[in-house]
Amino acid sequence: MLSALATEPRTRRHTIMQGESEVSSDQRMVLSTVLGSCIACCLFDPTLALGGMNHFLLPTPPEGRGEDRGEAERYGIYAMEVLVNAMLTRGASRATMRAHLYGGANLHEGMRAIGSKNAQFARDFLAADRIQLVREDTGGVLARRLELQPASGRVRCRHVAEHVPDGRPAAPPPSSGHVELF
Predict the structure, then answer these.
(1) pLDDT recorded at residue 164
(2) Does residue 20 contact residue 145 with C-beta atoms inside 8 Å?
(3) What is the pLDDT of residues 110-168, one digit of tens each?
(4) Residue 41 has pLDDT above 80, yes or no
(5) Is the dihedral of CA 167, 171, 172, 173 positive or negative?
(6) Is the pLDDT of residue 171 over 80?
(7) 129-134 — which CB contacts under 8 Å span 24+ positions?
(8) pLDDT over 90 (residue 98)
(9) Separation between Cα atoms, residue 182 and residue 155, nearest integer Å
């Protein structure tokens, strides 16, 4: 079964890499990413049919780190501000925006729970910004593949169930995952 998000005519796909974010109201746009311990926040404002996604590696920079923009993009404090501000600039309102959080897996046993810290940071940020969190799929030990159709708020999150020997996640079976609406 093909993804409902990828079978529409002339679908435009954009992969969100670490440190990136994108906001769109294009009916043909699908934003996608792959997450391990990283977090992706998806925002949607149903009053505008506008949505966006970011992808960050760590919550905040270590104490004493400079304000290098290239490095700042890896951190949630920067990525969340960029995404929220991009939505607000396009006319969204914190009162009508809805959020989903994905990722935050703790992939390596015996290492710090980076994924859990990332997820907690994102929850705290949304609460402080008074943006309603309506769905969360975080934690665990598996990577995730994520797709968002920003204009409709349709999201598909699939857990990557297998790992290949070099440590990169393998693709999930095509029938796994489901579409969630905001």
Answers:
(1) 46
(2) no
(3) 667 899 999 999 999 999 999 999 999 999 999 999 999 999 999 999 998 755 444 45
(4) yes
(5) negative
(6) no
(7) 129/80, 129/84, 129/94, 130/94, 130/95, 131/43, 131/84, 131/94, 131/97, 131/98, 131/99, 132/97, 132/98, 132/99, 133/99, 133/100, 133/101, 134/98, 134/99, 134/100, 134/182
(8) yes
(9) 8
76-89 vs 114-128: helix axis angle to the nearest 10? 40
Domains of the chain with CATH codes: 12-181 (3.30.1330.200)
Joined together, the tokens standing for residue 164 give: 């290949």
Helix, strand, coil percentages (3-state) for the chain, rounded to 5, are: 20, 35, 45
Separation CA 40–CA 99 (nearest Å) = 10
Sequence-separated (6 or more) residues with CB below 8 Å from residue 43: 23, 51, 52, 53, 83, 84, 87, 92, 97, 98, 99, 131
Please give the mean pLDDT across all residues of the chain: 86
The two tokens of residue 12 are 């435009």
Q: Which two tokens stand for residue 90?
A: 């396009």
